[in-house]
């Protein structure tokens, strides 16, 4: 897989170039999903500047915007997955961006908490404990792509808030 294109797992498929199609560009995390290794991690890294911009928002507006990004992600991920012919292609990382934003809801300020949230989210996204794994396997399309990372974000949010409560 080249850095700027994705191929489906089916033979003879046309490559998807995330930099030429707005839907693919968003689904692929502004190109971060084109990383040759650990695209989900690079997608989560791409979420950090978005989080820093959203950090200035009122809590209600942060929640509303995060929910809107989740809802927009469903058709974006559906379209890109369909074009690739792969249910949850590793290069689709919009779900990681939203999952990280969920993790960071009402997070304490500071880089330490951003890193802790990052690590927690990556752990839940990679390990996919129940029910995340079940959702990942059973729910099709963009909704399934988005839901498992929403749950990973909610689990991470819970642990981050518990850590903040007991450590601050």
Spatial separation of the terminal alpha carbons: 45 Å
Number of strands: 0
Major sheet details: none
What is the molecular shape? globular
Q: Please, how many domains?
A: 1
Rg, please? 16 Å
Whole-number average pLDDT? 90
Pathway: Phospholipid metabolism; phosphatidylglycerol biosynthesis; phosphatidylglycerol from CDP-diacylglycerol: step 2/2
Protein name: Phosphatidylglycerophosphatase A
Domain YutG/PgpA: 26-163
Enzyme class: hydrolase
Question: Which structural traits does this protein have?
Answer:
65% helix; metal-binding; Phosphatidylglycerophosphatase A; lipid degradation; metal ion binding; 0% strand; mainly alpha; 168 residues; transmembrane
Describe this structure in words.
This protein has 168 residues and is mainly α. The chain is 65% helix and 0% strand. The protein has one domain. The protein has helices at residues 22-27, 39-54, 59-84, 94-103, 111-127, 132-138, 141-167. It starts with 21 loop residues before the first helix and ends with a helix.
Short account of what is shown:
With 168 residues, the chain is mainly α. The protein has helices at residues 22-27, 39-54, 59-84, 94-103, 111-127, 132-138, 141-167. It has one domain.
Give the topology, please.
Blueprint: H1 22-27, H2 39-54, H3 59-84, H4 94-103, H5 111-127, H6 132-138, H7 141-167
Helix pairs in contact: 2-4, 3-4, 3-7, 4-5, 4-7, 5-7, 6-7
């Amino acid at each position: 897989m080249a850095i700027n294109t994705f191929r489906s797992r089916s033979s003879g498929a046309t490559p998807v170039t995330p930099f030429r199609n707005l839907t693919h560009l968003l689904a692929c995390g502004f190109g971060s999903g084109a990383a040759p290794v650990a695209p989900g991690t690079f997608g989560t890294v791409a979420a950090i500047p978005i989080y820093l911009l959203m950090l200035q928002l009122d809590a209600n507006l942060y929640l509303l915007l995060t929910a809107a990004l989740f809802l927009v992600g469903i058709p974006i991920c559906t379209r890109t997955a369909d074009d690739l012919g792969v249910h949850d292609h590793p290069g689709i990382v919009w779900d990681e961006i939203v999952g990280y934003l969920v993790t960071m809801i009402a997070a304490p300020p500071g880089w330490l908490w951003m890193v802790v949230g990052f690590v927690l989210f990556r752990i839940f996204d990679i390990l996919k404990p129940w029910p995340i794994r079940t959702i990942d396997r059973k729910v099709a399309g963009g909704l399934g792509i988005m839901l498992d990372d929403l749950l990973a974000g909610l689990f991470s949010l819970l642990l981050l808030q518990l850590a903040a409560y007991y450590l601050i």
